[in-house]
Design goal:
The protein is built from six helices and eight strands; from the N terminus they run βαββββαβαβαβαα. Strands 3-7-6-4-8 form a five-stranded mixed beta barrel, surrounded by five helices. The protein is of the alpha/beta class and 208 residues long. α3 links the parallel β6 and β7.
Length: 208
């Protein structure tokens, strides 16, 4: 394990970002000045690297759109995170519209809606099934991270790489991936502004 993979065990004042892949972590870090990033691995198999105490857990990285309203390069801020296991309840996200507004302030194309975490890359007919249930984007980590969060606030930000009309394994993937990485690298400042507002709101609640 490297210093990039885990956060020290002491409490973290602000949010902690969770990225599945190192390429996602490197992109997100470009816009961050004080927020730690933990690489949790594919399907969040290394979620035990996450700290026991922090203001919030935020999954950030790439995702697959489930409907045509989202195009490659668009950003989805989840308002809830859905799992696919039996008896899994959706997890509401903390202040999603506030986070979306901060991202929009930085010139990004942002939408808000439900995110579903699946066990595999979603293709073809399966996209339509999830979309019919109202999910906007699919990933493979957020529900795992949300389950580990317990009572802590959670958030999820996904930059679309593929979707209906733009299959993952299709000519143009490299270009879409590079464009999505550039967008992801622009998300850090908005996330940190949102984190300050989140912590400030918690402090106000405790002192009121």
């Amino acid at each position: 394990m490297t210093s990039d993979d885990a956060v020290e065990s002491r409490p973290v004042v602000g949010p902690v970002v969770c990225a599945a892949l190192r390429v996602e972590a490197r992109a997100v870090r470009r816009g961050l000045t004080r927020t730690p990033v933990v690489v949790v691995g594919y399907r969040a198999r290394y979620a035990d690297r996450l700290p026991d105490s922090c203001a919030a857990l935020v999954t950030m990285g790439f995702g697959g759109a489930l409907d045509e309203r989202l195009r490659p390069g668009d950003v989805l801020v989840a308002d809830e995170i859905r799992g696919t296991g039996p008896g899994t309840d959706p997890v509401p996200c903390s202040a999603p519209r506030l986070l979306a507004e901060e991202l929009i302030r930085d010139g990004l194309s942002v939408q808000v809606g439900p995110l579903v975490t699946t066990r595999r890359v979603v293709r073809g007919r399966e996209r339509a099934i999830w979309a019919a249930q109202g999910a906007r984007v699919a990933d493979m980590e957020s529900a795992v991270v949300a389950a580990r969060a317990g009572s802590r606030p959670v958030a999820a930000v996904r930059v679309v790489v593929d979707g209906p009309g733009h299959p993952l394994w299709h000519p143009g993937l490299i270009g879409r991936g590079l464009a999505a990485r550039r967008v992801l690298a622009r998300t850090g400042p908005a996330l940190e502004r949102w984190g300050v507002l989140l912590v400030r709101g918690a402090d106000d609640t405790h002192t009121s």
